Amino acid sequence: MFGKVLMLIGIFVLGFFASTIYASIAPENPVNIENPLVGSKDRISPFDRISEDKIHVYKDRIVLDIQNAQWSYFAATRSMDPVLDAGTNAIQLVPQTEEDIHVGDIVSYESEYSDGIIIHRVVYKGEDEQGTFFVLKGDNNPASDPGRVRFDQIQRVVVALIY
Prior knowledge:
The chain is an alpha+beta fold and about 160 residues long. The protein has one domain (about 35-160): Umud Fragment, subunit A, CATH 2.10.109. The protein is built from one helix and eight strands; from the N terminus they run H-E-E-E-E-E-E-E-E. Strands 3-4-8-5-6-7 form a six-stranded antiparallel beta sheet, with no helix packed on it. A two-stranded antiparallel ribbon has the order 1-2. The longest helix has 24 residues, at about 1-25. The radius of gyration is 22 Å and the shape is elongated. About 15% of the residues are buried.
């Protein structure tokens, strides 16, 4: 009996050390780093770019005082359901610097892993030996997009959605 207890304690200690060693050498999972909402049903919201004084609502029109805005629409890929779908219209801006991109933003970008433009949410912003990178994920996708996205791949940032 004592031998079995000693063996169980040994297995536990061995497992503890193995997990500690693995955690120190395993590649990081950038999606979960410093994300207070991991495990939460809340999603990180996009950065608030348009203040109330830039939104003018009249009886016959709405005016958004936004410089260099671009209109876009989306294909039905289902990766951003239920936020974006076919028929959704958006107003987007071209970001000028890396500081214009925030965790929670929905951005359009080019990827070496796919043809065409992808529009997904920024779930992590980090630094490595090549500089700033972003990890993106479709809200309806189970995993992050492959690879690290660099600022020069990002074309636009969504600032308004119109359904």
